[in-house]
Amino acid sequence: MWWRGQGSSLWITARSGWPRNWRRCMRNMEIKCRIEVECGSRREAEILNRALRVDNEGYISSSVAGKVLVAEVEENNAMSLLHTINDFLSCLQLAVEGMKRLKGI
Questions:
Q1: Domains in the chain: how many in total?
Q2: Residue 96 belongs to a domain with what CATH number?
């Protein structure tokens, strides 16, 4: 499954089949998510990465590739993954708003 929005991409892959007892398996499967956020410049991507890294340590690994901020999450529980992604996106939104205010946009 993947989702692509304006200037960003989100891929979610699950390494498991869909057996009859899929609800139980949803609690015990390896789920990976990759979020790509295209920024205006490499410098902006690095600033956002540094701002988010403090809160994400141990939960999300992030890096910069060109002017794209790449964040990867791996969880064993679908709800944990959802909460981690939600937290990351909330922090990202605040960091972007703060950067815009500092730039005077």
A1: 1
A2: 3.30.310.50
